[in-house]
Design brief:
Number of strands: 0
Shape: flat
Oligomer: single chain
Helix content: over 70%
Number of helices: 14
Radius of gyration: 29 Å
Strand content: under 5%
Distance between the termini: 59 Å
Largest sheet: none
CATH topology of the largest domain: MetI-like fold
Number of domains: 2
CATH superfamily of the largest domain: MetI-like
Order of helices and strands: HHHHHHHHHHHHHH
CATH architecture of the largest domain: Orthogonal Bundle
């Protein structure tokens, strides 16, 4: 007969050793949900039409779960571990609360946008359409043309500006002025950028001019400070040892920036550029002022008004015609398309950053 000492028995028992089993929080959570549902079911009004609100039940269950988990953990694991579990629960709950609006938004847009997510929506314009039918192909093309043009202008300007600030302008007065104006541009309202672009091209091309290039100029004003700030931070994260090693080999500064600094920070720079694109691709007010509104295709940035996807969604909602449901369906489909475009751009940016990121493995 083998005798087991009390100390060995205590160490083999997770509860006696001061640690909860992994299944205990799950059991407490299920118990809290059942208890919350039972309480609301037992004390609900006798009115047959009254239904228990599931959201309130879940919130009450989380409160009960926090109290029970803290009590059980305090009894078994001690005060420090109980407080740690309670803090982890509060952080997780805050994360879920912050995530709830995003999930609700995605579900709402998907539910309503898939109604008109068809071939006509991606191939037709709204020319001569007053009810059902039509599409947003002209708006998608206009958005892509104006955004890509703005990116082609703002990315080189913003990147070269950040290179000057980090690599050449340390301690100079010009650098302080550039940083100050970049900060000011970051905080300007988007409609101010639209008014600036409209005024500029009104002076250049005549009164009442609304063209696609004017919309691109407005987006450029909004993109440049974001590109400058994000690129500047990424360039500052490059270790100075890499620059010094390159200089020690006799490599000139411009080639060090091109071959060492930029490849090292390309992932962060790409992310910053995508943030800038995501910032401006959904702008409505500046494009409404600068580029105007159109129901037809326009591939020329320098002639006639050009439609954008945000303006298409806006007009479909505020200017509902004889069939409001058809206009609302197109508005939801446009919103879903805009979200998908941003998602595709971000996925592409991650792939580019992964491909061009410096290889650290030997």
């Amino acid at each position: 007969m083998t005798l087991t000492s009390p100390l060995a028995q205590r160490s083999s028992n997770a509860f006696a050793s001061g640690k909860l089993q992994g299944y205990v929080p799950g059991v407490i959570l299920l118990t809290s949900l059942a208890l919350s549902w039972a309480l609301f079911s037992a004390f609900r009004p006798a009115d047959a039409e009254y239904e228990v609100n599931l959201i309130v039940v879940v919130l009450a269950a989380i409160a009960i779960f926090a109290v029970l988990l803290w009590g059980v953990s305090y009894r078994v694991e001690g005060r420090r571990r109980a407080v740690d579990r309670l803090a982890s629960l509060l952080v997780s709950f805050a994360f879920l609360v912050a995530l709830t609006p995003l999930i609700s938004l995605v579900i709402t847009v998907l539910t309503n946008g898939l109604v008109r997510f068809d071939a006509d929506f991606f191939t037709l314009s709204m020319r001569n359409v007053v009810g059902e039918g039509g599409g947003a192909a002209h708006a998608m093309i206009g958005t892509l043309i104006m955004t890509l043009t703005a990116g082609a202008i703002s990315v080189p300007i913003g990147l070269l500006t950040s290179i000057y600030i980090v690599e050449y302008g340390a301690g100079k007065r010009l650098t302080r002025w550039i940083t100050f104006f970049v900060d000011v541009m970051t905080g300007i309202p988007s409609i101010v950028a639209g008014l600036f672009a409209y005024s500029l091209f009104e002076i250049l091309l005549g009164p009442g001019t609304r063209v696609g290039v004017s919309g691109s100029a407005a987006l450029t004003v909004l993109m440049i400070p974001i590109v400058v700030r994000s690129s500047e931070e990424m360039l500052r994260l490059v270790p100075n040892e890499l620059r010094e090693a390159s200089f020690a080999l006799g490599v000139p500064k411009w080639l060090t920036i091109l071959k060492v600094v930029l490849p090292t920070s390309i992932a962060g720079i790409t992310t910053g550029v995508m943030l800038a694109i995501a910032r401006v691709i959904g702008e409505t007010a500046p494009l409404l002022i600068a580029a105007g509104f159109s129901n037809d295709f326009n591939f020329n940035l320098f002639q006639d008004r050009m439609q954008s996807l945000p303006n298409f969604v806006y007009y479909s909602y505020v200017a509902q015609g004889s069939n409001p449901e058809a206009y609302l369906d197109r508005a939801w489909a446009g919103a879903l398309t805009l979200i998908l475009i941003v998602m595709v751009l971000n996925i592409g940016a991650r792939l580019i950053a992964r491909f061009f990121a410096p290889k650290t493995s030997r």
